[in-house]
Amino acid sequence: AQSVTQLDSHVSVSEGTPVLLRCNYSSSYSPSLFWYVQHPNKGLQLLLKYTSAATLVKGINGFEAEFKKSETSFHLTKPSAHMSDAAEYFCVVSDLTGTASKLTFGTGTRLQVTL
Amino acid sequence: GAGVSQTPSNKVTEKGKYVELRCDPISGHTALYWYRQSLGQGPEFLIYFQGTGAADDSGLPNDRFFAVRPEGSVSTLKIQRTERGDSAVYLCASSLAGTSPYEQYFGPGTRLTVT
Questions:
Q1: Alpha helix (H) ranges present in chain B?
Q2: What are phi and psi of B87, to 5 degrees?
Q3: Quick one: which of B30, B32, B35, B46 has the most CB atoms within 10 Å?
Q4: Which of the four pLDDT bands, split at 50, 70 and 90, describes residue B69?
Q5: Facing residues of A21 across strands?
Q6: Residue A29 — pLDDT band, cuts 50, 70, 90?
Q7: Coil, helix or strand for A1?
Q8: Are A44 and B106 an interchain contact pair (Cβ–Cβ within 8 Å)?
Q9: Where do the structural domains in chain B lie, given as residue ranges?
Q10: For A40-67, how does the pLDDT look when each residue is reduced to its tens digit (9 = 90+)?
Q11: Are B51 and B64 in contact (CB under 8 A)?
């Protein structure tokens, strides 16, 4: 069975500094990996996705993530945090590519951005 | 275009009562998913429909939970004899199955409170 572990439940950064949100995955198959963001009182929004193409994936709002099979990691980064980035971030794994599949979410990392 | 919509946005019910939660997917999306998000947790998969049929209902916690999608569009999640532990945000998502990598578009959720 697939799973993801988000290593930090809460991350605080200053505006303009880099963001690193860590995620490790476990999967019996070649995984599809995603990062979703959830702003307060809003729906989940897809930031980026990895599906066995390029290992460095670029997403929306300047976020990117690198798939490292040797480390079973899929960490999310952004060079410079903005106040609007404050939200809950979820690392997500889906085992199957080629058919629709259920998603398995991590427990989330709350990103706080301070002035 | 219109996204995934869910009604009601909030539902308060007494323990033991029956509730129905509705999801309207994005037009043309054949795959529909239900997830449950408890406070401080990531969403957990409940059930997935491909068309009218439930392709995977392995996440339904017990037989008090049931979901239908009779015409392959709107879906209803039904909970009988509600318990306080059923309190959570119930999320619906849809995707255009058949196109990789099956990005799931989430609705805003229904917050269920069982008193």
A1: none
A2: -60, 125
A3: B32
A4: very high
A5: A76
A6: confident
A7: coil
A8: yes
A9: 5-98
A10: 878 899 999 998 778 899 999 999 999 9
A11: no
Instruction: Say how far apart CA B75 and CA B65 lie, in whole Å.
Output: 13
Q: What topology does CATH give the domain B5-98?
A: Immunoglobulin-like (2.60.40)
Supply the DSSP symbol for A79: S
Which residues in chain A are closer than 8 Å to B59, comparing Cβ atoms?
102
* Chain B CB contacts of A103 below 8 Å: 33, 35, 43, 45, 104
Given a cut of 60, is residue B73 above it in pLDDT? yes
Per DSSP (E only), the strands in chain B are 5-7, 10-13, 19-24, 31-37, 44-50, 53-56, 65-68, 75-79, 88-95, 105-106, 110-114
| Domain A3-114 part of CATH 2.60.40.10 | yes
With an 8 Å Cβ cutoff, are A102 and B95 in contact?
no
Instruction: Name the β-bridge partners of B65.
Output: B79
For B30, name the nearest residue in chain A, comparing CA atoms only.
A100
Taking the Cβ of residue A7 and every Cβ of chain B, the question of whether any pair is shorter than 8 Å is answered with no
